[in-house]
Specification:
alpha+beta; 2 domains; elongated; Alpha-Beta Plaits; about 15% strand; 3 helices
Length: about 160
């Protein structure tokens, strides 16, 4: 191999690497943009798990709650939940189960726990953490709890 062909190979190799990088980059852009075709990316998958409100803000109900008039098909006790308002990378924790339980004043609470909602979450500072406070209450109190912004936990 002569010196001229060696120098041509050295020039062509970085172009190939740059071309492969460009193809990889365009594929990545295409793959991420196609994920938002079905619906807006920032739209919550489930309205009842929307955690865009901080603790203490008045809840705005965007979805109509299912009718709780006929409760005979439910067990004697049901579990209800509400997002704790915590955010990723935020040093402030979400509302504790004890503090949020005050919103259920007048309703008997038999069990309480903090747990993740089980949904996949984007890892982005400021996004909802997906943590919820769960309470076990009598099924007769379900309508009262729903009026206070809680949702029945489907298991």
């Amino acid at each position: 191999m002569d010196a001229r062909s060696q120098s041509l190979n050295m020039i062509a190799q970085p172009k190939l690497k740059a071309g492969a990088f460009a193809v990889l980059f365009m594929t990545l852009i295409f793959a991420t943009s196609i994920g938002c075709v079905q619906r807006p990316c920032r739209e919550p998958r489930s309205p009842e798990l929307d955690q865009t409100k901080r603790p203490g803000e008045s809840p705005s109900v965007t979805a109509t709650a299912p009718s709780t008039e006929d409760l005979s098909h439910l067990p004697a006790r049901v579990r209800v939940f509400k997002a704790d308002g915590s955010r990723q990378c935020d040093r402030k924790p979400g509302m504790s189960v004890e503090v949020m339980q005050r919103e259920l004043a007048g309703i008997s609470v038999y069990n309480q726990e903090k747990k993740p909602d089980g949904l996949a979450r984007i890892q982005l500072c400021g996004s909802p953490s997906g943590m919820i406070n769960v309470y076990e209450i009598d099924r007769q109190s379900l309508k009262q709890a729903e009026e206070r912004g809680f949702r029945r936990l489907e298991e």
